[in-house]
Amino acid sequence: DIQMTQSPSTLSASVGDRVTITCRASQSVSSWLAWYQQKPGKAPKLLIYKASSLESGVPSRFSGSGSGTEFTLTISSLQPDDFATYYCQQYNGYLWTFGQGTKVEIK
Amino acid sequence: EVQLLESGGGLVQPGESLRLSCAASGFTFSTYAMGWVRQAPGEGLEWVSTLRGSGTDTYYADSVKGRFTISRDNSRDTLYLQLNSLRDEDTAIYYCAKYRGAAPYWYFDLWGRGTLVTVSS
After folding, report:
1. For residue range A62-90, what is the model confidence (pLDDT) as tens digits?
2. CA distance A51 to chain B (A)
3. R_g (Cα) of chain A, nearest Å
4. Closest-approach residue (CA) in chain B for A46
């Protein structure tokens, strides 16, 4: 099975900061990678698919990059609504795996 | 409105069974693959199972294979998850989710609010 590892596990940042989260796959997943945002008590929300495609309605301050085994999610200017937990997920075939999550906290 | 609404969660004892339902609305249910994802208390997301829109071809995580069964009724726009031989470690919020994309590269684009399953003696 493909393992997904996110770093860091927790990130403390301030409003306006540029934030980068990394996701590494144990083997190549090409560009078949999605990013989700989850707030406490809520369902996850799709942000990015196919590594770099922005989901409709998601603010343009979110961007994704990478291919193969290394991927990044960048928030260009952190907003109060962005404090949440972020998960990457690979979908390279009929098995799906998530990273362990990165919690973005207020500094 | 496009939405998914789960039901059927509850408190059960180890070894017991439960059936979860997910009612879909606002989209052509039968044309989309659907899945279940769970989240143990304070933990991350774990994919559980997937089913094609046609109802053929099922996929399961190793942790639930042989115990859980995914199914759907396209005439009722409803997805199901039968949970048998439940264990303490199956305690989680179970989310129903809709896939998007061309097989086999499906990813989740819509999630329900989840239903809590608690397994405890």
Report:
1. 999 999 999 999 999 999 999 999 999 99
2. 11
3. 13
4. B109
